[in-house]
Specification:
- By secondary structure, the protein is mainly beta.
- The chain is built from one helix and ten strands.
- It has one domain.
- A hairpin with a 6-residue loop joins strand 9 and strand 10.
């Protein structure tokens, strides 16, 4: 079941990237100051940010994928006071990833499925833990 909104989780309406990938990719979570460059050139990017509208710290996950007629983009926001510094992901469809945020110095993890629609009209997330 897809979940869009909860007190700490918001799926932003936007949209997203490429075809299926078989390999698990590992990426570093960057600071919000690196937002523009990270999001423009990567299939998947995660930035840590403070989102005043949702009352706190969190992580913005950005996906870029080939939509119906152009490159599309989807964003989902996860509100969390836990500190993560990396993410593992793999593509599960043309528009969705299975992603786990993790703390490389501890044992904290958070997993979800994030995705968008081929026409670029929606973003979605499903919590896995």
């Amino acid at each position: 079941m897809m979940k869009c909104c909860s007190p700490v989780v918001l799926a932003l309406i936007c949209c997203c990237n490429s075809g299926l990938e078989q390999d698990v990719e590992v990426i570093e979570i960057t600071e919000i100051s690196e937002y523009d460059s990270a999001f423009q050139f990567q299939d998947v990017a995660v930035v840590s940010t403070y989102w005043e509208g949702f009352g706190g710290d969190g992580y913005l996950v950005n996906l870029n994928f080939q939509g119906d007629d152009t490159i599309r983009n989807a964003k989902v926001f996860l509100g969390s006071d836990l500190l993560y510094d990396g993410a593992r992901y793999f593509w599960i469809s043309d528009t969705s990833i299975n992603i786990t945020l993790f703390d490389s110095k501890g044992d904290s993890t958070f997993s979800m499925i994030a995705g968008g629609s081929m026409d670029g009209s929606t973003s979605s997330m499903e919590l896995l833990n």
